[in-house]
């Protein structure tokens, strides 16, 4: 069982959270100009690496806020937890929990 540190509520059991997919997927600049193949790649194609991966999670039974996490997909080791709207940190960064809150409605 994972112990996930919510940026708002602190450490909680993984059963309080839901996985939201790959983090930092940029929305197309001109979505109306995409053909069907390009649009399907935006919607459905995601990375599936073995190793450190940036993911989105929501604290569904707590504060209901979305956040990002760097997690090793092979060992389940959580490298970093950071707020939505902030850039992906270096996994060795010791300042991870001191990032400012993102504005309401941020989706990155």
Topology:
Blueprint: E1 3-6, E2 10-13, E3 18-22, H1 36-44, E4 52-58, E5 66-72, E6 78-83
Antiparallel strand pairs: 1-2, 3-4, 4-5, 5-6
Largest sheet composition: 4 strands, antiparallel
Sequence stretches where pLDDT stays below 50 over 5 or more residues: 93-108
Category by helix and strand content:
mainly beta
CA-based gyration radius: 15 Å
Which percent range describes the beta-strand content?
25-35%
Instruction: Give the strand tally.
Output: 6
Number of helices: 1
Shape: globular
Question: H/E series, N to C?
Answer: EEEHEEE
| CA distance, first residue to last residue | 27 Å
Description:
By secondary structure, this protein is mainly beta. Helices cover 8% and strands 31% of the residues. The chain is built from 1 helix and 6 strands. The protein has a 4-stranded antiparallel beta sheet, with no helix packed on it. The protein has a two-stranded antiparallel ribbon with strand order 1-2. The longest helix is centred in the middle third of the chain and has 9 residues. The protein is globular. The chain starts with a strand and ends in a 25-residue tail after the last strand. The C terminus is likely disordered.
Can you tag this structure with a few keywords?
6 strands, 108 residues, disordered C terminus, mainly beta
The gist of it:
The protein has one helix at residues 36-44, and strands at residues 3-6, 10-13, 18-22, 52-58, 66-72, 78-83.
């Amino acid at each position: 069982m994972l112990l996930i540190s919510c940026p708002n509520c602190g450490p909680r059991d993984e059963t309080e959270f839901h996985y939201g997919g790959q983090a930092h997927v940029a929305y197309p600049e001109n979505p109306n100009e995409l053909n069907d193949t390009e649009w399907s790649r935006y919607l459905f194609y995601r990375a599936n690496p073995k190793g450190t991966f940036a993911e989105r999670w929501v604290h569904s039974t707590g504060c209901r806020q979305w956040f990002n996490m760097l997690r090793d997909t092979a060992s389940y080791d959580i490298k970093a937890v950071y707020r939505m709207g902030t850039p992906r940190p270096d996994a060795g960064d010791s300042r991870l929990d001191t990032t400012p809150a993102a504005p309401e409605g941020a989706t990155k």
